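Severity: low
Component: inverse-folding endpoint
Summary: output formatting inconsistent between runs
Steps to reproduce: submit the following structure tokens with default settings.
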């Protein structure tokens, strides 16, 4: 067992996966329906994400565990689980005040609660919101989301060097959910020299730039973890190979290779290459691209853990694929 582990599993009817002795503290379930968060009597958080799973499975899940007992607290809509070393949080964003304000309020609440509880630094965030590229009073919803997030996060000098790794994807049902991990000290930020950092994108993508790092690395007492943000077919700040799924896939994988090279240079415990990067989530805009992408991945990578394929809107209309991942290295080795 380790301080923080995630496995992919299936949800039929109880989650089954390879590490089932320690009870999970959170389960993220992907599938059709709506996004929502529920907590049961054992303080297990169940996060449903409205994102169809591609391939054979109807439902798939991410099972989070820790060998240290988790304490639970709730602050308004925000669910917090923490154990003295890291904090896991999740909330449903209520969009009634408009997406920009709602996002700002959600992030402000998160930061406030993290500071109060002694886990001030975000390491990795997932943002799953409906209709991400759709319009809202004439403005694209992703831009409204970016503006609200930026206002909340950009309150202190130097915030850019402490931005978490992130993913922001469109769901197919109702409900906007955010979940994240945070800690007492910040993670190391990794950027890709071939991509403009998202927090420096020109204003054409979002008047307030997307506040995330390409990847982060965190040293825990027992391990080092690498968190890869959602990565797509972008060079400089421009989308490349539009309309070409295989081309976008190759460029995305190439971007990931560059990030892994940087991570290995900056953090010696990291020995990652694409083959041992685990917990890959591959988001595809078009379900029809699944077979091609799966076949390509199977031919080129011998990953021990097969990727989870999800159908989701990526936050630029022309992007067809986005890939995120995670890996853990034992510090003792
Ligand atoms: C990109 O590289 C693609 O706004 O949190 C990837 C990961 C993307 C996270 C975010 C956006 C976000 O710009 C999109």
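Observed output (run 2 of 3):
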């Amino acid at each position: 067992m380790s301080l923080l582990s995630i496995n992919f599993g299936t949800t039929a009817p109880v989650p089954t996966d390879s590490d089932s002795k320690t009870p999970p503290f959170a389960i993220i379930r992907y599938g059709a329906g709506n996004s929502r968060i529920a907590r049961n009597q054992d303080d297990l958080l169940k996060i449903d994400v409205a994102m169809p799973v591609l391939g054979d499975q109807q439902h798939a899940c991410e099972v989070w565990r820790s060998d240290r007992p988790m304490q639970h607290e709730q602050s308004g809509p925000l669910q917090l689980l923490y154990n003295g070393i890291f904090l896991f949080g999740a909330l449903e964003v209520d969009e009634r005040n408009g997406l920009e304000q709602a996002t700002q309020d959600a992030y402000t609440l998160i930061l406030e609660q993290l500071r109060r509880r002694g886990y001030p630094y975000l390491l990795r965030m997932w943002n799953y919101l409906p209709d991400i590229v759709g319009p809202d009073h004439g403005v694209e919803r992703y831009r409204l989301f970016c503006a609200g997030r930026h206002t909340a996060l950009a309150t202190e000098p130097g915030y850019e060097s402490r931005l978490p790794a992130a993913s922001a994807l469109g769901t197919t049902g109702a409900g906007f959910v955010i979940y994240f991990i945070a800690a007492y000290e910040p993670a190391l930020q990794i950027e890709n020299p071939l991509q403009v950092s998202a927090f420096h994108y020109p204003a054409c993508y979002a008047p307030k730039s997307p506040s995330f790092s390409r990847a982060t690395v965190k040293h825990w007492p027992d391990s080092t973890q690498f968190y890869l943000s959602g990565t797509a077919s972008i060079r400089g700040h421009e989308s490349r190979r539009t309309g070409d799924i295989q081309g976008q896939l190759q460029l995305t994988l190439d971007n990931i290779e560059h990030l892994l090279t940087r991570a290995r240079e900056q953090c010696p415990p990291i020995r990652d290459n694409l083959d041992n990067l685990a917990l890959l989530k591959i988001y595809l805009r078009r379900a029809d691209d699944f077979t091609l992408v799966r076949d390509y991945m199977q031919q080129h990578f011998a990953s021990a853990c097969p990727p989870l394929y999800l159908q989701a809107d990526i936050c630029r209309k022309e992007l067809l694929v986005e890939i995120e991942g995670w890996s853990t290295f034992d510090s003792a080795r």
